[in-house]
Amino acid sequence: MDLLFLIFAICTGPVLLGSSSRVRLVGGPHHCEGRVEVEQEGQWGTVCDDGWDIKDVAVVCQELGCGVANGTPSGVSYKPLAEKEQKIFMQEVKCNGMEATLFHCERAEDVFDCSHNEDAGALCEKNVRLAGGPGRCKGRVEVKHQGQWGTVCNAGWNLSAAKVVCQELGCGRAIQTRRCCNKATQGQGTIWLTQVSCSGKEVSLWDCPSGHWGKNNCTHEEDTWVECEDPFDLRLVGGDIRCSGRLEVLHEGIWGSVCDDGWGKKEDQVVCKQLGCGESLSPSVKARRSFGPGVGRIWLDDVHCSGKEQSLEQCQHRFWGYHNCNHKEDVAVICSEQ
Ligand SMILES: *[C@@H]1O[C@H](CO)[C@@H](O)[C@H](O)[C@H]1NC(C)=O
Ligand SMILES: *[C@@H]1O[C@H](CO)[C@@H](O)[C@H](O)[C@H]1NC(C)=O
């Protein structure tokens, strides 16, 4: 009787799609790609890539609720790099691919010989998308489970959940979310989730509690629609190469500059990353000035990023066009790539 009750409780309680996991992927474009970090005693450390292969990545992908394993990139390709002081927790990991977590895989007893140059990375398939809309940042919320894309029922869903999706997809802020869809725009496949409840602070939709996969009484008329702002369109001008120059941002069809009040390393980093230009080289003031002042609009001022953002859009800033600057204060950025 007790056992039956236990099974009943396990099967009917809310599920956390993946937050109990003690592995995460950092620095990538979404939560299913990046440098591998594992948690031990409240600290996050990296994994050494000695013998790291696709089976090991498969376990990570599975553990995170991501799709299939697509690659074993070096952890060093994800910026910002691991801090020097950050610990390396695992070496010579050897999974057979069926383990429930990376912690169940064989590994060396200690980390005996490894540096952050050998950090392991993982590339798994993304498992959230906005479908059937104009562009990748507006559309019907779809999640992938057991290899199939399906929809999310609007019951229990709110703007906080939309915010998590927008951030996870590297889009801008969540503008609105609603129940959608007429016959022409609704989803076709399984309705995978309902009662998804996010506080808005989660890194991924997978960290929000929800009902069980595929268990609901929803119809496709209750599919969920989300609209995020598009990420800012950025360019670097005045230099010889794509990845160095004065920063300009497109708004209302007009390119304008960004004022350097409060601008620093973290903001540099977000720009380089968003443009696919590697890391910021943290140039001197003189080097920055070499691109000359801009002309025309000054669109942004007092930009503040935490450094974790995927795009400048997710950082705080004043209203478009509000500033107390002149063009001598235009931001310029120099990144490591060409
Ligand atoms: C959305 O719902 C969650 C709980 O389900 C709650 O924590 C959050 O504050 C809500 N957000 C909004 C914008 O109402
Ligand atoms: C679906 O509806 C049936 C009949 O009303 C009910 O018994 C069942 O609990 C519902 N299932 C869910 C997951 O809400």
The quaternary state of the protein chains shown equals: single chain
Mean pLDDT: 88
* Unreliable spans: 1-19
* CATH architectural name of the largest domain: Roll
Q: Which cofactor or ligand species appear?
A: 2-acetamido-2-deoxy-beta-D-glucopyranose
Tell me the name of the CATH class of the largest domain.
Alpha Beta
Biggest sheet character: 6 strands, mixed
**CATH homology superfamily of the largest domain:** SRCR-like domain
The gyration radius over C-alpha positions equals 22 Å
Estimated share of beta-strand residues: 25-35%
Instruction: Count up the domains.
Output: 3
Structural class: alpha+beta
- Global morphology: flat
Separate helix tally: 5
Topology as a string of helices (H) and strands (E): HEEEEHEEEEEEHEEEEEEEHHEE
Number of beta-strand segments? 19
Give the helix level as a range of percent.
10-25%
Distance between the termini: 67 Å
Walkthrough of the structure:
Strands 2, 3, 4, 5, 6 and 7 form a six-stranded mixed sheet that branches. Strands 8, 9, 10, 11, 12 and 14 form a six-stranded mixed sheet that branches. Strands 15, 16, 17, 18 and 19 form a five-stranded mixed sheet that branches. It contains five helices and 19 strands. It has 338 residues and is α+β, with helices and mostly antiparallel strands. The protein has helices at 2-12, 54-63, 159-168, 265-274, 285-289; strands spanning 15-16, 23-27, 33-40, 43-47, 69-71, 88-90, 121-124, 128-131, 138-145, 148-152, 174-179, 191-193, 209-210, 224-228, 234-237, 244-251, 254-258, 298-300, 332-334. The protein is flat and about 55 Å long. The protein folds into three domains: 2-124, SRCR-like domain (Mac-2 Binding Protein, Roll); 128-228, Mac-2 Binding Protein, CATH 3.10.250.10; 233-334, SRCR-like domain (Mac-2 Binding Protein, Roll), CATH 3.10.250.10. Mean pLDDT is 88; it is low at 1-19. Bound molecules: 2-acetamido-2-deoxy-beta-D-glucopyranose (NAG) (2 copies). One 2-acetamido-2-deoxy-beta-D-glucopyranose (NAG) binds next to loops.
